[in-house]
Amino acid sequence: MPAPASRILQVDADAFYVQVARLTDPPGAGKAELLLVGGSPTGRGVVTSASYPARRFGVRSGMPMAQALRLCPDAMVVGVPRGACSERSRAIVRVLERFTPVVEPASIDEMYLDLSGTETLYRQEPLDATARRIRAAVWQDTEIAVSIGGGTNRLVAKLAAGRAKPHQTPAADGVVVVPPGEEAAFLATFDLADIPGVGPRFQDRLAALGLRTVADALPHDRDALRRWLGATAGDWLYHRIRGVGATAVQHRAHAKSLSRDETFARDLDDDDALRRELLRLSDRAAADLRRHRYRVRTITVRIRDADFRDRRASRTLARPVSADRAIADVALALLARLRKARRVPARLLSVGLSQLVTTDDVEQTVLFPDAVADHLESDRDRRLSKALDDLRERFGRDAVDRGG
Amino acid sequence: MKFTITREKLQEGLVAVAASVPTKTTLPVLSNILVEAVPDGIRLSGTDLDIAVSTLVPAEVDAEGAVTLPAKKLVEIVRELPSAAVRLTAASEQRVSLECGRSRFKLLGIPRDEFPSFPPVRFENAWTAASGDLQKLIGHVAFAASTEESRPILNGVLWELRKDQMRMVATNGHRLARMDVPASGGRQAADFIVPPKALEQIRRLFGAADEIQIAKSENHLGFRSGQTYVYTRLIEGPYPNYEQVIPRDNDRVAVVDKQALAATLRRVGVVASDQTHRVRLAFSGGTLKFTVSTPDLGEANDEMAASYDGEPLEIGFNANYLLEILKFMPTDDVRITMKAPERAATLEPSGWDDPASYLCLVMPLRLVD
Fold first, then answer.
1. Which of A110, A185, A291, B255 has a CB 3.0–4.6 Å from the CB of A106, allowing a cystine?
2. How far apart (Å, rounded) are the C-alpha atoms in residues B197 and B179?
């Protein structure tokens, strides 16, 4: 008997930050049709999320707030209600967990569910009927409107969720489920740029080959794609455009990565100033890391140049670290590399930590702590970071900081 | 080149050198064995550029010459040949034929000029060591060398030659093995850092009763006994100061049965974390208790008798490190010394009737708070 097809759903909250901002402030943001969430106190930040009516003015997430206000001058701007957002997000996950134990939060407003093997439990209810019940339950319990996409894998589910959004597709009602066997036909209706993982640079390469839509790429066999794009990217694209995406949905209670970023009040071009900002971000990220009892193996520094070009550099360590100094040292080296490659004013810096490990809180002690080349942190570093954490715990986050 | 050799002698020579031939290489000639017909026999040589092995086997040589042949295929062919005389003729590297009984093979070789030359080690001023002593040192110490690439120096075994003794030390930064054997010979004091792969060849190729000649060039060592040579590149130092990390004030001492300890560690280790292999040991009075607790997996508890009269002590270890060390301990009982939960512990043979002295050290696993 062939294994029954996987049943994957993606739940995507519609303009999540906008919805939460309205719920938090019903008389103000709750009433503003043109609402922009994001920004910074100085008005230099970027739009985290814009209400659908505001989007009609051309406002997009990630756009500088000033530019958004030029496009849509009547919009109301509110800060991101961070606490409330995490709270609602967790509430959504709790609702989803009533339907299946396998819920993977992919971000604050996107969750994957694996309902494979629940056919009997739900008495052979079609997947889209289950999705509708889930959507209603989320609305009932959290007052957040979500769109749900479904299919036999994550890729199809994610694309379907996009199609399900009422504000983006006319006649959409919040749920789109692609039946097993129809993945390729469904995919054929998209542009290549819609496929997650096809970024701007990859789009340029594809465009140079005359490939813009999935339908453009479908007639080419695997060998041709491999020849044009290299074996890895060729294989990858060959499968994606046929709706094949193998990554399993994983139940994950933990974060996969964490990051800290800062959009500067004005563009920074001074290396020392950038280093100071980076240290601040790296210390904060490191403190977050330790608070969640993680250690990190991959450290990424991202810089957004004044012309909005995003560049990043990362390093993966042989052994995980958690001390401020270890993470800062790596981050500074990465920043130096990025600045060497292109020295223009920067508008944003970010420090990202990924490949987080708990290693059940065990650590191998070493014989030659000072001599180990990849041993970036010493006992002393760890004790120092711990002391800082304790101080901040008692006296608040700003109790201690690096000297200028 | 033309010679006749018994299948057995040919196989003996090939087995000796084949282990030095790399399985993967970017330089095709390194996959080959250099076959040289010289007046008193056939010299077979292989190398991976780090180490080289060369040996002479008796053969009836009709015409001298040399060619290189693919090691893997040559070994496979000779293994399957009947026990009879093997006749090898080479007009050029393109036309090498091998005949044995009614079997005929034609092989394609690579010209000998492409084969790397051996390090210029001169044996005129060689010193000597008893092969048995070297085998003992290598057999007890080499296992502890690091296999990670992050610190090349720890990939080697430190070999210290002194007037009246030889010592080997190896460590991966978490555990360490050290052995001394008394040795006469009045040699000059010298320290070398040798790749374990080369030491393994020395242990394998030379008989326990052999006297080995050892000579050094600028950055290579050569070992020779009879007509067999092993050359190795040396790893450049300095080796970390290991003396400094060997504890001298470990005052908590336990003596335990080696087999029982290993069996218990293997048993409770089943539910230890795949990453850390953490086992918690609690020494108290006459018992040694074992606890393993791994989130998302489970727990195990066990205990065994131990002779221990120090203050109770709880200490965590990577079970695999302990098990590995126990494999090399030469006595039925092992003596474990400790100081504190985060300090190095040592393991030594207990009641070993041998002029050598042997010590292993293992760093504990710490609980991060």
1. A110
2. 18
Active-site residue, selected from the candidate residues A110, A119, A125, A182: A110
CB contact under 8 A, B151 and A373: yes
The domain of B181 spans 127-242
Could you tell me which of B324, B325, B317 has the C-alpha nearest to residue B272?
B317
- In 3-state terms chain A splits into helix, strand, coil percentages (rounded to 5) of 40, 20, 40
Residue A329 lies in a domain: yes
Answer yes or no: do A296 and A220 share one domain.
Answer: no
Dist. CA B277–CA B293, nearest whole Å? 10
Tokens of B243: 């003396």
pLDDT digits (tens, 9 = 90+) for B38-67: 999 999 999 999 999 999 999 999 999 999
Q: How far apart, in whole angstroms, are the C-alpha atoms of residue A217 and residue A229?
A: 12
Chain B within 8 Å of A364 (Cβ-Cβ)? yes
CA B241, B247, B253 angle in degrees (round to 5)? 155
> What is the chain B residue with the closest CA to A370?
B240
Determine what percent of chain B falls in helix, strand and coil, rounding each to the nearest 5: 20, 45, 35
Domain count, chain B: 3
Does the beta carbon of A362 lie under 8 angstroms from any beta carbon of chain B? Answer: yes
Q: Is B368 inside any structural domain? A: no
Looking at the structure, tell me whether residues B274 and B338 fall in a common domain.
Answer: yes
Residues 6+ apart with CB under 8 A from A121: none
Does the predicted interface ipTM exceed a cut of 0.95?
Answer: no
CATH number, residue B19: 3.10.150.10
| Residue A179: partners with Cβ closer than 8 Å, 6 or more residues away | none
Q: Are residues B336 and B289 in the same domain?
A: yes
- Express each pLDDT in B135-162 by its tens digit: 999 999 999 998 876 678 999 999 999 9
Asked if B43 and B5 touch (Cβ cutoff 8 Å), the reply is no
Out of A362, A366, A368, the one facing B367 most closely (by C-beta) is A362
A110 is catalytic: yes
Same domain as A173, residue A36: yes
